[in-house]
Each structure stands twice: as structure tokens, then as C-alpha cells.
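--- STAGE predict ---
source: upstream dedup step, 1 unique chain passed
mode: sequence only
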Amino acid sequence: MTAAEAYGPRARGGVDLDAIVRQHGELVKRIAYYLAGRLPPQVEVDDLIQAGMIGLLEAAQNYTSGRGASFETYAGFRIRGAMLDALRRLDWAPRSVHRKARAAAAALRAVEADKGAAATEAEVASHMGVSLDDYHKILRDALGCQVLHLSESDEDSDAPLDRLADDGPSPEGALFDDRLRQSVIGAIDRLPERERMVLSLYYGDELNLKEIGAVMKVTESRVCQLHGQALVRLRARLAEWTERG
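--- STAGE serialize ---
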């Protein structure tokens, strides 16, 4: 059964769901394959597409033209959010991975507070009482779950970045969104240059790790380490937002 069949041929307001799926189905697939390329291999792209289709149909039912954004932009938020929700329910990352990622962020935050400057990987590893090799393994494992780390919460309440795509924000919500955006931008700007470059090439230019390695003249493994370190560092510096519930 397709998502449109599950909802019926038309939903409230006379929305033609079959037409919506035909017109915007490729958007769902693009987002699904983009996310799948950044997730562990056990995550099935078909599961993401199915979840995304539900998000698309919900977007069609809830969208109004007065929002100041095109339907495709609005639907993109809803589609991605539905996929992230599905990933959370799948719980593909072991709890130990999340726990170690949080521990790494806490250690990094403690080191930086103590020295008043960016913490090195060796300093964070030492603070955690693990070898540098073990810390690099934590970064590699965390890289998968960190795709969701700014969109997840340890509780059932809405997570910080989920609120950015919320419908029709109140004045207080708009102020919250603006402060959050500025905090994220500031945290990225303060990253060490190489970590900032990895994020730019990966999320901005959509290069894979191997391609980034070629650009930066380092191994793919080193790019993975830098990427994981950057995301752990962001988690540490955005604790004010990520730890709200």
C-alpha cells in the first residue's frame, strides 16, 4: 500500500494526494538518498522514502501559501523531519554510541573551559582516560549518530532544530529560532579551520569523505576523524540548546 492509498485519494481540503506524490516524489527520493549516503549501511533507503512520503502528504495537508516559503521548501522540512523521526524509532545506533558521544562532548567542553582555547583530540582523549586510538574510534562511531544529534532529544519533547521548521512561529518562537540560528552559525565559525573546511565541503559542497580527503590531501580516515571531532565540538558548544527539554 502506498502512502497516498493509506491516506485515501483525497485528504481534507480536497488535496489530490496522488498528484502531490507524482509531482514531488522525486524530492522525497533526493532527500532520502542524500541522508542514506551519510548513514550506516544498515539503514534502508526504502524505509527513508516511505517515511518521507508520509511527511510529503502531511505537508500537503498543512501548507498554506501565506507562510512566505514555497511548498517545496516547506515540504522539504517536513519530509526530512519525517525521515529523522523514523530513524529515531529504528534506534539503529546503540545506546553506548550515544553515551560515548555525549561523554566526548562533555570532556571537550571541560577541557576548553579549563584552558580557554580549542581542545585538541589528544587533550580530550586524556581527559576521558582513553587512548587516542580509542578516542578516534569514538569519533568514527559517533559520526553516524551525530547526523541526528542536533535534531534529537533525550526526552520526548521537541528537539532544538526540529523547532526551526515549526509551523507559524509565535513572536517568542521567532526570537528563539533567530537566536538558535545565530548560535549555530557562531559555533561553526569558531571551529578550527580544518574542521570547518570538512563541514563546508561535506554539507555545503556535498563531497564524500574520499573526495574531501583528496582536496585536503589527507586520508579518508583522517577526514572521518575531523568530521566526527567537529560534530562533537558543536555538540559541546551548543549544549545550551541540545540539552534543553
